[in-house]
Design a protein that fits this description.
Blueprint: H1 2-29, H2 36-62, H3 75-104, H4 108-129
Helix pairs in contact: 1-2, 1-4, 2-3, 3-4
């Protein structure tokens, strides 16, 4: 049940995160003014990713992850037991850093740049460590 929630919630997280990154890049390139819409989009991405982390940690703790630890030579097992959780935590740290940095900025360009860089890096990390073969299984 929790694994299904984690999988389906991931679609929402990815959609909002992609939208936030694209919005930040467009705002940066077109030199737009940073508005409440941009603020809310960044906050929404931050909140959704943190909720996803909590759900993922619950899946990890409740699941039988410890049985994987003996088989780290298998790349699929290593991805699920170690790489995916560790890289998702790193991605969420980057998103949190991007959120914190944007709040300290005064110029719209700097705010968009913080989102584009930190949220963008987090998105790349997330996409690289999703267990695509296990998603929604």
């Amino acid at each position: 049940m929790m694994k299904n929630i984690h999988s389906y919630w991931a679609f929402i997280v990815l959609a909002v995160l992609i939208f936030a990154v694209v919005n930040a890049i467009i705002g940066l390139l077109k030199k737009k003014e940073f508005t409440h819409k941009d603020f809310r989009l960044g906050l929404f991405a931050l909140i959704l990713t943190h909720i996803q982390l909590l759900i993922g940690l619950a899946v990890y703790i409740v699941g039988s992850w410890y049985s994987f630890l003996s088989d780290m030579k298998n790349s699929a097992t290593r991805l699920l037991a170690l790489e995916h959780p560790l890289m998702m935590i790193i991605a969420i740290v980057l998103i949190t850093m991007g959120w914190s940095k944007h709040k300290k900025q005064v110029k719209s360009e700097s705010k968009f740049k913080s989102f584009a860089i930190f949220y963008g890096l987090a998105l790349v990390i997330i996409l690289s460590r999703i267990p695509w073969s296990n998603w929604l299984v």
